[in-house]
Request: fold
Amino acid sequence: MRSRHTSSDGRTVPASRVSPLQLLRSFEPGDEAAILRAHGRVFAKVDPTFQPKDAEAWRWKFQQCPAGSKIALAIGADGEVQGQYAGLRQLVRTADGPVSFAQAVDSFSIAPVLGGLSHASAFVRAGEFFANSFCGAADGLEHVVWGLAIPAVWRIGFSRLGYEHVRTVNALTARLSELSNLPVDGMTLEESAHCPADLAALYDSVATERGASAVRDAEWMNWRFGAPGSGRYRFGSARQGGQLRGLCVFRLGSFAGQSGGLICDWIVPQADDLARQSLFGWLRAQTQASGATQLIALFADTAPEWVEFQQAGFRVVPTEYILAARCFRAPFDRDYLFWRWHYTLADTDLV
Reply:
């Protein structure tokens, strides 16, 4: 049997009944409570520190995301969610034109295998439905689906969902005692809880240096760093003569087993040494004031920051994550992503 449901972007998407007991379909208003119940059951089993999401946090993440979201669900005979494959959409600027990426987040399966889903996990079946319903080469579809996968998820994604290995992910960390602390003349540092309104020109300058980057504008930045009850992100702006020369975002937290000051985003032109050094000084002061002893950052190892940060005193630290992707439109394949895609911690949902 097949019925039709409306996706989050207003398109009509067929639902697929794969057995008399279970249904694959896109998200419908009112599914939030069942998703949160299932999400809590799954993640509480694997993470002793897990704190269940509430409805407000869910709405912020999936309904208030400026670019939207896509969600595929496996529904059991009792009406409860058995599995989910969800993606947060990203509008990506590239030298080859604008494209749409979706970051796979909060995907899960209640049980490893569900017989009613053709002996595949509900995660796999929901992932297949997601790809068939929302992804492709045409405009309006998702051209790349990606995520930071742990090894167990990577193995399933590779064998069942067409995941490709883009890179093994490493982080950069620096102890404050090892960072240079040179004074910077002529630069003014401003601190705020919100994104500066004049970000557009700075992002445009940085984006022209990159092969591909998710669009940074005030709307997206204020959403990304405005989670309900967060109150923990700080924007650091480096200015000269009133002009915004560089921007970074700081918070105290942890990533990949490392705790300290997180460089959540970094928007600085490659050649602007003054802005870079000025923001390093601001980050150092923020970290010291928080009582932490190190800074943590995430960049692709093909990005200019990979070398610039190590020259400033950062060291490479391995993580368990694999950057995996499913590509649906040329030329945005695995090699393109490896060499050209610029990302930071802000592009993930991990901090």
